[in-house]
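Notebook p. 47: complex prediction with iron/sulfur cluster.
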Amino acid sequence: MKVKPFYKQLAEGKTLSVCSLVTDSSAATADESGLPIFPGGFFIRATGDVKEMPFSVLQKKANNNEKFLPLVKDIKRYPTMTTFVMHSFYGEVYSYDFENIKNGHKIERVRFSFGDKKFIPSGFTIQPDKCISCGTCFKVCTFNAIIPGNPYSINPAYCDECGSCYTVCPSNAVIPKNSLLEEERQLLGKQVKARYIKK
Ligand code: SF4
Ligand code: SF4
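Predicted complex, structure tokens below:
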């Protein structure tokens, strides 16, 4: 609605990020130590550029596609209302099963883009020439994203980008988005190993 602060925000900023979550159940519970237990579900996020759509254009679209009709009817009911279209965007969609009950992996992610936006490549990769196939990354990855082999590799669709593999790799084979100071990497690596690698 053109009289609301959000209209001004969109009209001036021309950018928007939207996300949506679909779960089997609406509420997360907690385990005995208070850590959250999320029911499995789906998540989608898109970020991009928006522009206001003139009512005449919306009307024309509604003539060809009935999905636009509720918008037309709503604008007729509340004439201060308007419509924005996200014409260029990037984002991600993933299913999640953090308790690893159904899928054998915790997330499965696909990234997408539309118009002149491109998603920023993210996540971690393993440099084949530096990997000594020690398997430490495999032991600490709780997302089942590490593929054993010679060299080891990462399945980007399953990777949550938590960075655990990066902190424990003894030969700096894992390439991060944002590198940590070596001292900090090693300190965090000790904590990760203490948590996930049983002696
Ligand atoms: S921890 Fe590093 S060296 Fe060891 S298997 Fe993983 S990537 Fe290779
Ligand atoms: S960043 Fe985390 S989720 Fe991704 S491969 Fe490494 S340990 Fe697994």
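Notes: Helices lie at 5-13, 55-64, 69-77, 136-140, 164-168, 182-196. The chain has a mean pLDDT of 92.
Next step: compare against the earlier run before touching the bench.
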